Automatic annotation (TrEMBL):
InterPro entries: Virulence_RhuM-like. This is Cell filamentation protein Fic. It holds the Pfam family Virulence_RhuM. It comes from the Bacteria.
Length: 269
């Protein structure tokens, strides 16, 4: 181990950092079969290719920035990205995936990325009400209840409910659940912003661990599987309930024109 001094925000912080023999790194990098090893092999192959064709290999960006990519400019750009994510109109769980995409080693084709993207929506739902998105839809989509169990939909409360509204799990959340989800995501974004301000780089693995740790900090249960109901089954159930609800909705629905005629009749009386 060697003592390394690095700047975190306005402070100089010293930490003991593990250093490994280069030959050991190369040997392990070409034998192990995880995501980091794949990234290492891509990098190493590019170096060998450049050296074979040109007779030399050079990392221009690192040379320009004193041997590191983690410059002040890198973290300033990262802060801008995080603040743009906060202000965006994207759904709660999409904002978490956007933060994940700012990872230092982000690879959209990596197995870890696909796993994270597939699980994030269910992980947030499970933390709030103890069900996956599909389980929530099956539990709450009911043609006999008011608005088929939906609390919000496109154009609500005056617009009709459409088939595409009933397959969105967020549309079934009550006000308290929505507020909880909003607070969790907002706090997670605060943490991401703080990490960037302190000049602490985050990898894909770091963000995944932080999300689980963050939910535990809120005393939330962590989802460790895909749940008991598939997305296809939830969609089938919601659409089946909607076909029954559509008849009720058509009977009760008052368009702007209907309301206008009622107003005219009342005025004449």
């Amino acid at each position: 181990n060697f003592l390394i001094v690095q700047k975190e925000g306005s402070r100089n912080v010293s930490r003991e950092t593990k250093h490994y023999n280069l030959q050991a790194i190369i040997a392990v990098g070409f034998k192990v079969n995880n995501e980091r090893a794949v990234q290492f092999r891509k990098w190493a192959n590019q170096i060998v290719k450049d050296f074979t064709i040109k007779g030399w290999a050079m990392d221009d960006e690192r040379l320009k920035n004193s041997g590191t990519k983690l410059t002040k400019d890198y973290f300033e750009k990262l802060l801008v990205k995080i603040r743009e994510i906060r202000l965006s109109e994207r759904r709660f769980y999409q904002k978490i995936t956007d933060i994940y995409a700012t990872s230092l080693d982000y690879d959209p084709s990596a197995k870890a990325t696909k796993r994270f993207f597939a699980a994030i929506q269910n992980k947030l739902h499970y933390a709030i009400h103890g069900k996956t998105a599909a389980e929530l839809i099956v539990d709450r989509a009911n043609h006999k209840t008011k608005n088929m169990g939906l609390t919000t939909w496109e154009g609500s409360p005056d617009s009709k409910i459409h088939k595409y509204d009933v397959v969105v799990a967020k549309n079934y959340l009550n006000e308290e659940e929505l507020n909880q989800m909003q607070r969790i995501v907002s706090s997670y974004l605060d943490m991401a912003e703080l990490q960037a301000e302190r000049h602490i780089p985050m990898t894909m693995e770091d963000w995944e661990k932080r999300l689980n740790g963050f939910l535990q900090l809120w005393d939330k249960e962590i989802l460790n599987d895909a749940g008991k109901v598939s997305a296809a089954l939830a969609k089938k159930h919601a659409e089946s309930e909607f076909e029954k609800y559509r008849i009720i909705q058509d009977r009760l629905y008052k368009s702007d024109f209907d309301k206008f005629l009622e107003l005219e009749d009342n005025f004449k009386k």
